[in-house]
């Protein structure tokens, strides 16, 4: 299975001087096609920073981050944005749906930004909405959808196209357990179809959908459970 995400010795320091915070203190992690890795750890341990750096929304202070074989740390802002759009799908805590766009338009947006013609983008967006069981809501605006429906629109947007890397930060949020399980099923299906994923969660039941779990503490991987990947190292202790 090919490697989709390869992080090596990644350090991320926020702020400067007295206000400096080391959010990631040397994280190495390999995620392959077909693999979903759960990321757990207390508040402030670096989970969101890990996701943001993995997906090129934030840059590492040092270390290497490769997505589909491309070193994103070395890319300029425009090329990094291209990798984000083409290869990375995100599902965040705050769903970031655009209120003025319908469900289908929200899902089509990353494709259109990437130059896919509007008609084709809409077709693919609707196909993704069918997958999440929301075809009938395609022309509705976010404010007319329930929380669970909005979550599924966000998932459809993350999974549309051929994204190789799916990054999910508490994707089930405040959903009831039935809807939450449906969202996890969708994520798992997408991974099984050949993507790689990182899933930040506080919920051990959701982590159970992953192939392995890494535990972060103070910006380091404390331990990795499940089908062990020897490359998930604690840099400081290695
Ligand atoms: N933009 C920023 N500027 C300064 N410090 C930051 C910034 N982003 C994160 N931090 C700090 O980096 C550390 C790691 O934060 P991060 O959000 O990655 O943790 P987390 O594990 O996702 O926490 P939570 O579970 O509460 O979301 C924290 O100490 C946080 O305060």
UniProtKB/TrEMBL annotation:
Q: Which Gene3D superfamilies match?
A: P-loop containing nucleotide triphosphate hydrolases (3.40.50.300)
User: Per the record's keyword annotation, is Transport included, yes or no?
Assistant: yes
- Describe the location of the ABC transporter domain by residue ranges: 5-238
UniProt keyword list: ATP-binding, Nucleotide-binding, Transport
Residue ranges of coiled coil: none
Q: Cross-referenced Pfam families, in alphabetical order?
A: ABC_tran (PF00005)
Name any one GO molecular function: ATP binding
Record-given protein name: ABC transporter ATP-binding protein
What organism is listed for this UniProt entry?
A: Myceligenerans crystallogenes
